[in-house]
Design brief:
By secondary structure, the protein is mainly beta. It contains no helices and 27 strands. InterPro entries: WD40/YVTN_repeat-like_dom_sf (IPR015943).
């Protein structure tokens, strides 16, 4: 465990390396460490953002970061800093009064996406090609339509994932949309269609579905979720794929509760998932899971290894010595 110096609910975390990381959360909170978490320092709050809920952050070094606020309509915003969070620039305000930003994902230092809940049945997707300085709505992506009542979860900024030339988007209905990115890089999305696959996850109400998705390469991925109103419900909490998301299989022994975040630990060759009642590790591609938490227990929201964050300013750093290597 580390001392964050904050009592905010933290849902954004971006590890640049083993020394530098950024975290974000409620009440306009942005934190940064430059010494591996020995000290976390509060950043300047973006102007007018004192009450915003920053669900996502992406960073490349100790100076440059992009921040996503989630909320109804214009409370969903994107800010950018290039001076170590001393100053922030508002670069995007949600143009949809009924919209809600759910996820921020950068494919590299210049190209990124922000996804929002559907408006008028159309999934709200915006793209940047200049590191987040400017954004434009993606309008020509075929089949990017939502099912009735379908949305995305902003619990951990993990509703999107990318690996190689593929992009995946996970929904509240347990669907995984996958899209092959243009090889030439001239257009982030292009006009190619999105393919859809159904994952065997918890469902049946607006509080259940896929909360996080991650891929370690173009073929192997894991989705986690469940029902956040039933934090100890062990049904439909994880699924895995070995064919790029074309087919999904339920975990034979899943995490024992709702999970909001998942990540691939390359060093340990293991998947790590976490949620409000604990964290888990899988060494067999997501097929079976076992408890990972130490004596501090659960209470987590989001992962960017080696860090994990949660409510009441909870921050911890993974101890690799306590995580045996998989095959």
């Amino acid at each position: 465990m580390q001392e964050s110096g904050s009592s905010a609910s933290l849902r954004g975390i971006a590890a640049v390396n083993s020394s530098v990381a950024w975290a974000s959360g409620t009440e306009g909170t942005v934190l940064r460490t430059e010494d591996g978490g020995a000290h976390w320092r509060k950043c300047a709050v973006p102007p007018g953002a004192e009450k915003l809920d920053f669900r996502g952050v992406q960073a490349w070094d100790r100076e440059t970061a992009v921040l996503m606020g989630s909320g109804p309509g214009e409370l969903s915003r994107i800010y950018r800093t290039t001076d170590g969070c001393a100053h922030w620039t508002l670069v995007l305000r949600n143009p949809d009064k009924d919209g809600f930003f759910d996820g921020l994902l950068f494919l590299d230092r210049r190209k990124g996406l922000v996804i929002g809940d559907p408006v008028g049945g159309e999934i709200a997707l915006q793209a940047t090609h200049d590191g987040g300085q400017s954004w434009s709505r993606v309008k020509d992506a075929k089949e990017l339509r939502a099912l009735e009542g379908e949305a995305f979860f902003a619990a951990s900024n993990a509703s999107m994932a990318a690996a190689g030339q593929w992009l995946w988007i996970a929904t509240s209905k347990g669907r995984v949309l996958r899209h092959r990115l243009p090889a030439d890089g001239t257009d982030l999305i292009g006009s190619a269609g999105f393919r859809s696959a159904q994952a065997p996850m918890a469902g049946g109400n607006a509080a259940a579905g896929i909360f996080a998705i991650a891929f370690r390469d173009e073929r192997h991925g894991v989705a986690v979720g469940g029902d956040y109103t039933k934090p100890d419900g062990a049904s439909g909490t994880a699924a895995w794929t070995a064919d790029g998301g074309e087919h999904w299989t339920a975990a034979a022994a899943g995490p024992p509760g709702y999970r909001s975040t998942v990540a691939w630990d390359k060093a340990a060759r293991a998947w790590i998932a976490a949620g409000t009642n604990g964290s888990d590790v899988s060494y067999d591609g997501g097929r079976t899971w076992r408890p990972l938490d130490g004596p501090e227990g659960g209470g987590w929201n989001a992962i960017s290894l080696p860090w994990i964050v949660g409510p009441q300013g909870r921050v911890a750093k993974l101890d690799q010595k306590r995580t045996p290597h998989g095959k």
